[in-house]
Amino acid sequence: MTDLKGKHTLYICYFGLRQPLVQTQVIPYLQELAATGMRVSLLTFEPEFRDTWSAEQIEEKRVELLAKNIGWEALAYHKSPSAIATAYDIFAAARHIRKHIDADDIDILHGRVHVATLMGALARKYSKRKPKLIFDIRGFFPEEYTDAGVWPEEGTLYRSAKRVERWLLRQSDGFVVLTEKAREVLFPGSKESCRDTAGRPVEVIPCCVDLQTRFKGEQTDRETQKSKFGYEGRFVAAHVGALGGLYLTREIVDFLVAARERHPDLFALFLTQTDPGPVTERLKENGFSENDYFVGRVEASQVPEYLEASDVGLSFVKATYATLSRSPTKIPEYLAAGLPIIANPGVGDVDELITDDGVGVLIDSFDRGSYFKAIDDLAALGDISERCRETATRRFDLKTVGGPLYRRLYDRLFCNAGD
Q1: Cβ atoms within 10 A of the Cβ of 132, count?
Q2: What's the pTM value of the predicted model, to 2 decimals?
Q3: How far, CA to CA in Å, does 200 sit from each of 1, 33, 142, 409?
Q4: Which H/E stretch holds residue 10?
Q5: Which among 269, 272, 300, 376 is least buried, having the fewest CB atoms inside 10 angstroms?
């Protein structure tokens, strides 16, 4: 094993620090790396930077992150016009990173997704010092945009993104993917050695949860939790995360309508940053009163409490080539709260998880018959809360799964072979 103490990694994240994803899926991982003795720095991109951050808030957050052994810097995120704004951010960031590579003795550039990795690759290309480059792929980015209808299939933007992706795959020294299916697509035959054909390390690291601090993994009385939110005696179906695009809002509501025929007391819980308008309108159209649902944003720290007051977690995502690479964050969160899952097949490794571990039900198709069958099959499983928590611990614990796999990847970057 390589001694990582003293090595300096710069994690490049094309999101804002306050976004829940950064709070739950970036900072906890960086803390795990910092625990090895590495120097850890984080670069984020803040929307409306000047208007939403004061000098005092910036300094306060820097001090807070330094207490976690993470250095933090931020650049402004530019939104529109989309392609031009992103190109501006890429080249501005590359210049910024290049200056820091030599000044701060950067050993590793860790890019989260394609855009951030491109920033690091360009910075390294024009720098005298050549740090290692990690491509944290997270998803099939070009296909996600075409599948969601943002880009036309085989259009100029898609073809340009694919060229960039191929270049990044050649330039990078190590890789993270979220699912076994993504590993097989991008790096066939790498499962046994955890290396690609060029000998570069490849790790499958699903989205994990912090079971020690955020989700305690303790047996919680669900009815007691429900009373905190006024859900006593109700069957609570929860959805966490975005709505629209690849996330099937219409199908989720249609499922809830069917579920109400089995559970007339059903309460629909949507914890989302997405505009609540479309989903609340559809719920009302289908007979849900304002006492039958909650749609809105809560702090990341509050999500566990809401899930522990729920009975089932829903994950309905459009199944496409792109979503083979997806590891929905909501899945380990549901399991950590002891929630069984109802999901559709064809998304990442979710099918195998539900089938092999017996932690929920897969729907056959998006129709009433399949919805009724899923609800009845879920009831037949009985109370599987403990099984769900055990699966979360075994497969998705940040401390015993996510953190060690990141450390192993970093170690392999500085080793010629083997573990």
Answers
A1: 20
A2: 0.92
A3: 16, 20, 23, 10
A4: strand 8-13
A5: 376
